[in-house]
Every structure is written in structure tokens, then in C-alpha cells.
Design goal:
The chain has about 150 residues and is an alpha/beta fold. The chain contains 4 helices and 7 strands, in the order ββαβαβαβαββ. Helix 2 links the parallel strand 3 and strand 4.
Length: about 150
């Protein structure tokens, strides 16, 4: 059994206007789910209504995380966008299947597959395509501890 941590990091890429890929690293649980919901909601509200969550680096995901995903799905829908999940860990996939959320949330085997699925979605952002942002919420308080933007 792995140790659950209070650390959650999002690394965000903007491959095209209106679309963000957020790679989630860490555990998504009652301590970090609000951070995921808040940080990803900010992306959606700031002009990236089409959001792909790359979950390949997630070690643990509980029901608080499921609630965050539902909230993000609603936020994306409200902005005329879509939420896609990529590289979903087996345990989370079982939870999505058991709860029926796999019929509502778009689940893709890879990030590339998720991007292809969203390729026909209209662009709504004026953000810089190709830019990357690293958001780290490292202390479990839900407050970001740093944002880095490469030159």
C-alpha cells in the first residue's frame, strides 16, 4: 500500500486556444480534491473550457476526487466546453464504471486520443498556444505554493 500524501501538482499545457492539458501528479483525496477543483476551474474560467486531465501520475483517487471531477465537468459544460480524462489509473476506472460516471465523463486511453476527440471543438481562448504552466499545491492547505512559467 502506498503512502497517501497531501501534495498535488498540476502541470498545464496549452496546445491551442481554448484547450488545456493538465497533468495531475500526486494523490487526489479529501485533502487535495478541492485544490484540483479550484485550480482546474480557474483554467476553464480563464478561457480554456476544453480541459484534458492527464491522470497517469495519480497514485490515489477517492470519492472526494470523484466529486471534484463532476464539478469540473459541470464547469466545462457551463462554459460551452468539455472535460476529458486521459490515462486513468485502473482503480479510478473501476470507480467510474461502478458509479456510471464513465458514461458521462469522456475517458480516453491516452492524452493524444483525448486531444483528437476535442479537435473539432471551437477555440474560445486568446491564450498563448504552446505555453506551459506548473502549479504546485504542496502543503495540503489548498493554497498554491508556486507558479512557474518557462521563458
Amino acid at each position: 500500500m502506498s503512502d497517501v500524501t497531501d501534495t498535488l501538482e498540476l502541470t498545464v499545457q496549452h496546445p491551442r486556444p481554448g484547450l488545456a492539458i493538465a497533468t495531475v501528479t500526486g494523490d487526489v483525496d479529501m485533502h487535495t480534491a478541492d485544490t484540483l477543483r479550484r485550480d482546474a476551474s480557474i483554467l476553464i474560467e480563464r478561457g480554456c473550457p476544453h480541459l484534458v486531465l492527464d491522470l497517469s501520475q495519480v497514485g490515489f483517487f477517492d470519492s472526494a476526487g470523484l466529486s471534484a471531477l463532476i464539478g469540473l465537468w459541470h464547469a466545462a459544460q457551463a462554459q460551452g466546453g468539455a472535460l476529458g480524462l486521459a490515462e486513468v489509473p485502473d482503480r479510478l476506472m473501476r470507480m467510474l464504471t461502478l458509479t456510471g460516471l464513465d458514461t458521462i465523463l469522456a475517458v480516453h486511453a491516452t492524452t493524444a486520443e483525448a486531444l483528437t476527440a476535442l479537435a473539432d471543438s471551437p477555440a474560445t481562448s486568446t491564450g498563448d498556444p504552446g505555453s506551459t504552466t506548473h502549479v504546485s499545491s504542496g502543503d495540503g492547505t489548498g493554497e498554491p505554493t508556486g507558479v512557474q512559467r518557462p521563458a
